[in-house]
Every structure is written in structure tokens, then in C-alpha cells.
Amino acid sequence: MRKTALIALGILLAGVIVYVYLREPPLNQIPKKGTPFCTLLPSSILYGISHDTVTWVGRKTLYWDKKSELRIYFYGGADTLRKKVMKIAQTWAGLSGLRFRQVTSLYDSAEIRISFTCPGYNSLVGKENLQTRNLRIPTMCLEGLDTLKDQPLFTRTVLHEFGHVMGLFHELQSPAAFIPWDTGKLYAYYEREYNWKPDSVDKWVLQLYESVEHSDFDDRSIMLYAVPDEVTKGRFEISWPDKLSQRDTGFLLSNYK
Ligand SMILES: [Zn+2]
User: Fold this and answer.
1) 139-149, pLDDT tens digit by residue?
2) Which of 41, 70, 93, 217 could connect to 176 by a Cys-Cys bridge, CB 3.0–4.6 Å?
3) CA 102–ligand 1 middle distance (angstroms)
4) CA–CA distance from 240 to each of 72, 184, 221 (Å)?
5) Cα 103 to Cα 110: distance, rounded to the nearest angstrom
6) How many angstroms does the Cα of residue 105 sit away from the middle of ligand 1?
7) Of 244, 251, 250, 178, which is closest to residue 217 (Cα–Cα)?
8) What is the count of structural domains for the chain?
9) Domain range spanning residue 195?
């Protein structure tokens, strides 16, 4: 009798360990290589949307095959939250012919795995998502979106991160970007707002991409972040995007249709 009880207890413990192990990804295993840095600039620099031009930056080898189905898994998050993210993400899928299908089990081998607890906002780009098949590692972090009340910010963030899923990089670092940075003020701004050192600003803001396809610079792309006037020479600023631009849509038509 005692032996049976011990075996039952052992099975129960093993079950608990397996459950805990699979349930949430360890936060120290977020993929770094190839992960584009997405960050939230402070709301104090929100500007109204102005002019009507735009662009996209991508890498063909990272685009998905046409009409691919991507499986999407959420580590946690209420059902309503997941549905909200899926609905916004469908904007890309609907225009591209790709299909986004939410799966509810880690064993469904989802290509896109989203956590609301891993640090920051970021995503792997296009087929980079296939490079990590460890199901315990998220491919996209939407930290805190489960408590975010700012609806425009929520929508913009999901659209932006799924732009990375589609294979797009940041527009600010397009080889076609012509931002008249005031480098000294830019460094000071990032130091003040994010505690970034100049080498981080060089890497994530100033350094233009190589080996990418791109259109003319698109100052309304959803893959763009606002540029406050205080970090540029003369009068130059870019407002936050709130939806896919014409060029963003053009990217989908050119590469997925
Ligand atoms: Zn980004």
C-alpha cells in the first residue's frame, strides 16, 4: 500500500514539474541574436500625423512563402487579450494572403510564440522565427500589453511587431533614410530617456542596414518610431504612425501576392 502511494506521489510530482516547466518560458532565454530592438519612446513626444509619404525595409530571404499559415501561441494572457492581438495582427494577414492561426497548445509547434511578460517589445523577423524551435522560448515580447489601457499604443505596438513577423525591419535605419540627426542632441536625448550609451544609439538608431531591400524613405510606415524635433537639425520631426502606410501595404502586394 505504501509503495503504491509513493508511486502515485512520484507521478503527481513529475506531472507538476512537467506542467510548470512547459507553462512559461524562462525569461533569461529570450533570443537576442537577430532580434530587432523595439522600444517605446515617451508619450511626451507624440505628434500629430502629418504628410503623406512612406517606405519599407526588408530582406527577401526572410519573407514567408506565399499563402503560408503561421501558427501563433500565447504564453498566458486572457482570452479577450489574445483575441484583441489576433484581430489587429490579421490586418497584415488579410492584406498578404498569409494565414494567422491561433493554437492553444505548445505541442502545435507554433512559429510565432508571444509572451506578455518577457522584457520590452520585440520580435524576430520573418523566417528568423524558424531558427528557434525551442517551444519554451518566445519569438515576440509584448511586455505589459495585458494591462495597457492606451488603445492607440496597443494597436500600434501589435501592428509594428507583426510587421517584423512579415519580414520588415525598422524604417529609421533604411539605407534611404535621410534624417538630419543632431548627433550630440540625439545622444543626450537617449542618455536622458533610456540611459543608453552612444554605442547603443549608433547601433539601434543611426546605423543604416546593409543587404536589405527597401523603398524610398517612408515617413508614415508602421515600422517607424517618432523622431522628436529636439534631436534633429533645423525643423524636422516625424510623428508616430497609427496604421499601415501605403508603402507598407505596397510591400505586401509586391512580396506576398
Ligand atoms: Zn521594431
Assistant:
1) 899 989 999 99
2) 217
3) 22
4) 27, 23, 9
5) 7
6) 27
7) 178
8) 1
9) 2-256
E strand segments, the chain: 57-58, 69-75, 99-103, 112-115, 121-123, 140-142, 213-214
Give the CATH number, domain containing residue 160: 3.40.390.10
pLDDT digits 0-9 by tens, 193-233:
878 899 888 888 898 988 788 888 999 999 998 899 999 99
**Residues with Cβ < 8 Å from 218, sequence gap 6 or more?**
53, 54, 55, 56, 171, 174, 224, 245, 247, 248
Q: Which of 23, 148, 135, 36 is nearest to 84 (CA)?
A: 148
Distance in Å, CA 169 to ligand 1 centroid: 7
Run of H or E residues at 11: helix 2-23
Span from the CA of 170 to the centroid of ligand 1 (angstroms): 6
Identity (one letter) of the amino acid at 38? C
Q: What share of the chain is helix, strand, coil (3-state, %, to 5)?
A: 45, 10, 45
Q: What is the DSSP letter of 190?
A: H
In this prediction, residue 147 carries a pLDDT of 92
Ligand 1 mean position to 240 CA, how many Å?
Answer: 13
Task: Write out the three cell numbers for 181.
Answer: 540627426
Dist. CA 203 → ligand 1 center (Å):
14
d(CA 80, ligand 1 centre) in Å = 24
Question: What's the gap in Å between 8 CA and the centre of ligand 1?
Answer: 48
